[in-house]
Amino acid sequence: MFAAAYEAAMQVLEGKAQLTEAQKALAAEYGIADRTANGYIGCFLAMRRGRTFKTIVSADGLRFMLGRIGEGGPGNLMMALQSVMNHIMYLQDITGNEPGLRRVHAEFVGRLREMAAFDEASFSFDDQVTKALADMPEARTRRLRQAPAMPEQQIVLTRVFRRNPDVIAEVLLLANGVCQGCDQAAPFLRADGRPYLEVHHRRPLAEGGADTVENAIALCPNCHKERHYGANYRTTQQ
């Protein structure tokens, strides 16, 4: 039934069938209620679209769904895993912890790591630019002629920190529209009228820095970039 639900969901995604038709066909084939058929197909559709779903699915059913979606490549699987985590968090507020679903999620995160390329390029890109700047103009021109116009795309796994929005808000309010690096007014206003400043952590989160007001400072874009890339930023206040 899960396999049939997947095929039905794919028909809907590809525009070959209407959702209501697919639901009725699945319900009739397996003798289940329309609502149940809607739940099965809806789960697949939500996972393919990266949306939260509320239908409760067993761990084995979830494993089957992720396996089929993963056949479409790491991009599809990454989107589905985000949808699954949203589902787990939704259920946690209702039924408590969901260890079975979390194990399945962790299993497919491991598969995704095997499928996707890790973001090593970002660490070496600055070095590549430096090398290109120092290269002979003829060599650079030759590479430009041979390079494809459209950049290559790559699925990337990267770690991000879920930052506290209250810390950001408090730091920006304390700055009151003035860069705490150069003491100049914010360079422009956002669409909603707020001064544009960026919140920088004195000790980076990736290096064990705390996500607190005391460890943060509001900077204009120039000062923020200097803290990360400037020649003397290590000797200045972070």
UniProtKB/TrEMBL annotation:
Keywords: Endonuclease, Hydrolase, Nuclease. InterPro entries: HNH (IPR002711), HNH_nuc (IPR003615). Residues 168-225 form the HNH nuclease domain. It comes from the Bacteria. GO terms for molecular function: endonuclease activity; nucleic acid binding; zinc ion binding. This is HNH endonuclease. The keyword Cytoplasm does not apply. It comes from Caballeronia choica. Signal peptide: none annotated. The lineage of its organism: Bacteria, Pseudomonadati, Pseudomonadota, Betaproteobacteria, Burkholderiales. CDD domains: HNHc.
